[in-house]
Amino acid sequence: MLSFPVSRSESAISQLAANKEESMRSVLGIDAAWTLTEPSGVALVVERESGWQCEAVAPSYNEFIALTSDTPVRWTEKSRAGLAPNVPQLLEAAEHFSGAPVDLIAIDMPMAKKPIKTRRPADNEVSKEFGTRWCATHSPSEYRPGPMGKQFTEDFLVAGYPLATSLTLTPQRSLIEVYPHTALLSLLKDRKDDKRVPYKVGKSRTYWKTEDVPTRIKLLLHELAAIKAGLEMSIRSIPFDLPAHETVTHFSSLKPYEDALDALVCAWVGIEHLLGRTSPMGDGDAAIWCPTDVIHGRNKP
Hints:
9 helices
């Protein structure tokens, strides 16, 4: 069990009570690393009477849980260790902020109702639909992220969140697999280029081969800022600002922001899912839920 602070000011207690009364639905978004060597972004968004807002976001599991003890995120920390996800603690932390159990979990992680050993129909269908837009999926295996995806699926099922597939179109309190790259095609649909958004910190040299480091940092921050602005059209109170490009000297310092934004994109897909604006790509064993408005190549439910 988590240990929460026992002393709060009267105003903090009143605000927490107000949040509990106003909370309608909530989505926990997780940008899950495929191995234990990398951190995972986590974001909780809650529907209030005034709309959806971000209640908590962090670039790692332990920092998200630490927010319940008023420990701020250290956004400028250069490195973060990967950890195995503790699903009960994550759900308890989310309920701490929302005042009620989470309604939907949206995770960027290959998951299935049976062990993953190779590419799934879900991976192939997404790649066929979005490959020309440079949003094909990576190939999962029984080793990467096999054990991680299996753990997520089983732990959330035990907690009362079964994996939603193409055979469960209107799940209640469920777990869905999402894919930020296809989601961004919808979130940023006003962009002239209907292609994969170039925002991954580790791929800046691939995106802009001839540019120097300061220019690539500036271009990368431009893309991250566009994603954050797109999210803020639907989600209020995202509690961090991106750094000015002049202050960034190493790409690694931007990774926490990338992971946090990915988690928020996952949560945004969860909102779209609750609003009936996503479609499953896959089969009864596994499905990747994508915004319906960017699926062109087949009939949509």
